[in-house]
Design brief:
By secondary structure, this protein is α+β, with helices and mostly antiparallel strands. It contains four helices and seven strands.
Length: 157
């Protein structure tokens, strides 16, 4: 099993950072410069308990699909997504938020195992961890940009 642990400090209130982390627009902005597709089973602009997120991406000639479901949500402290369908053997992403003196500490913890096919195993071993870490870092940069500027008002109104 592979794991990733990232900590990001954001100079904004914990409620704002928590909601930006669940915001559909923020996910789409993160993906706009990639060839990925994203859809959500959320009825609102914020992903909630029981909602699903589906990612489609083409990697090395094969379209990979992963659907994750929000299985736990405690506002504004944490939420957890787990794969319910997809190529990976396992995917769990825990999002934790802690109010600090002058902002919010956001912690991402991912546990995952690569795809089950032979090609996917190679992909997982040499590529997947770096790819997922880069994706989460990019997503956190977008959250930080929105939270620390007035951009958040456009997506959390």
């Amino acid at each position: 099993m592979n794991s990733i642990h990232l900590t990001t400090f954001i100079q904004a209130p914990v409620d704002r950072v928590f909601d930006l982390s669940r915001n559909i627009t923020v996910y789409k902005v993160t993906l706009q410069h990639t060839r990925h597709n994203f859809s959500s089973g959320s009825a609102s602009s914020l992903i909630g308990l029981g909602d699903t997120l589906t990612f489609r991406a083409k990697h090395l000639g094969k379209t990979r699909i992963m659907t994750a479901k929000v299985i736990n949500l405690k506002k504004p402290d944490s939420f957890v997504e787990e794969q319910v369908n997809g190529d990976l053997r396992r995917f769990r992403h825990e999002h934790h938020f802690m109010q600090a003196e002058n902002g919010t500490i956001m912690i991402d913890m991912l546990d995952f195992e690569g795809p089950t096919d032979w090609f996917g195993k190679l992909l997982g071993k040499f590529y997947l961890k770096k790819y997922l870490q880069k994706f989460i870092q990019k997503r956190n940069e977008v959250i930080k940009q929105y939270a620390e500027s007035e951009k958040w008002r456009a997506v959390l109104s």
